[in-house]
Amino acid sequence: MVRCDILMYHMVSEPQTSLDARFAIPPQRFAAQIDSLLGRGYHFVSLDQILGMVNGQTNLPDRSVAITFDDGYLDNYENAFPILQQRNIPAAIFLVSGLMGDSNRWMHGRGFSERALMNWPQVREMASHRITFGGHTVNHARLTEVSADQARREIEDNRAAIADRLGTQIDHFAYPYGALNETAVKLVREAGYRTACSTRPGPNRADTNPYVLRRIEVYGDDTPAQLHRKLVFGTNERALTVPLRYYWDRLKSRLPGN
Predict the structure, then answer these.
(1) 20 to 30 Å CA-CA from 102: which of 71, 179, 225, 253?
(2) What angle do CA 136, 100, 15 make, to 5 degrees?
(3) Do the beta carbons of residue 230 and residue 237 sit within 8 Å?
(4) Domain residues of the chain, as ranges?
(5) What is the value of pTM for the model shown?
(6) What's the confidence (pLDDT) of residue 132?
């Protein structure tokens, strides 16, 4: 069964604090990762194509991979967008609609740097160049820690705001912090979204729940080789021992009594 991997990025810029290092990838490294995957025969696809795959309507080529960015940082526009445009690669960005043109307030006071978010004119410009926009709640809410009514408002108002600004249907969502439960999944589906991305690692296949799509998190200091290894083995881990554990687990599963 054909698999499709989804990469999860956040910031595309130099880290400004030690905690940023996990989430901020320098533009040169981002470009090197993309070029390395292209050189290895990967095909970059959109979330709409992945939706078609899980709905049984689209056949994707082997080594299909999608690029996503959480939060909508200004550096996605300034640094990632030109790199993607030069290579004609699609991507999806999940927006915190209540903080557009503001900053990452949900990270303030936690040791992370203050980072600017994109504004609506920048979003509209990108939307005309193979960039898809999805929801990430109004205020970057942790949906498992708020009431069902508040979660519904965060999800529905987020989708409505983006649709109003772009004049198009908004089909894709990503759970802030990767926090999800049955209620959150139900509310996302009822709001009209057609897919939702989690932070659970692993590949996606035709039988994957479209409301719990898996993603591989890209760390700011991942080398192209490390990222490729993470994709091959469907994990966020990048240690050289990952292949050994992978094949050992496969061997154990075939032994009698397992």
Answers:
(1) 179
(2) 80
(3) yes
(4) 4-222
(5) 0.92
(6) 99
